[in-house]
Amino acid sequence: MKPEICLSCEEVERYLGEEEERVHALRGVSLEIETGSVHAVVGPSGCGKSTLLYVLGLLDSPDGGRVAIESEPVLHLTDDELAQKRSKLIGFIFQFHFLMEDFTAEENVMIPMRKLGQLSDEQMRDRAAELLDAVGLGDKLRRQSRHLSGGEQQRVAIARALANDPRVILADEPTGNLDTANSERAFDLLQNLVHERGKALLLATHNPAIAEACDWIHEMKDGHIIDSQLRPTRG
To answer: How far is CA 127 from CA 107, 108, 165, in A?
Structure first.
């Protein structure tokens, strides 16, 4: 049986900046992300990796082309409908954690769950504790984020991205601020979730070891995907 395509784009174009200094950030990019697969996007800074994640994550609208999530085109959706899709189906991990500094680790992880509004307070706390334990912060769930180290804050951000059990995880340099041991732990957690629970992960990375561990590697240059390879070890 052919794997289900849970996120895709076709011939996507995106321009950034004002008219006089406009940058053609994405130039006809097409990509399909299947359930149960881990995809890495690699390439030099400024090649369009982050812009692609923002468009696929419904945070930014393309200037041309088509984006679909769970086979449903999204360009016709209202802002409220797009926000609901993001909350329910997509988890984001950014290079900078964007935590609420005065909130505890637990409270930060609960933010997406409160926004979606499908769990009781007790269920949200249980879910947050489970996720923080998975990233090695089970003993710090009630510590204010401002009192966590940079690496710990990034691990809270990873737990937060998983709060609503998303179908698709989009990550922009998710382990860039972590040491080697925690980088491997975070990636292993994400990879296991994908393969065991039928999710999908697309990450932009400069880390060759992480890229090599993915199922697919897509190389970007000047707004184009110039090469896509299925890793031989993944069959």
So the answer is: 11, 12, 10
Copy the structure tokens of residue 58: 């419904």
Q: What tens digit of pLDDT does each residue of 18-34 get? A: 877 889 999 999 999 99
Provide the pairing of β-strand 5-16 with 90-93: unpaired
pLDDT above 70 for 234: no
Question: What global pTM score does this model have?
Answer: 0.88
User: Is the confidence at residue 112, as pLDDT, over 80?
Assistant: yes
Site of tokens 């334990």: 133
230, β-bridge pairs: 216
Buried b (16+ CB within 10 A) or exposed e, 25-48: bbbebebbbbbbbbbbbbbeeebb
For 42, the enclosing helix (H) or strand (E) is strand 37-42
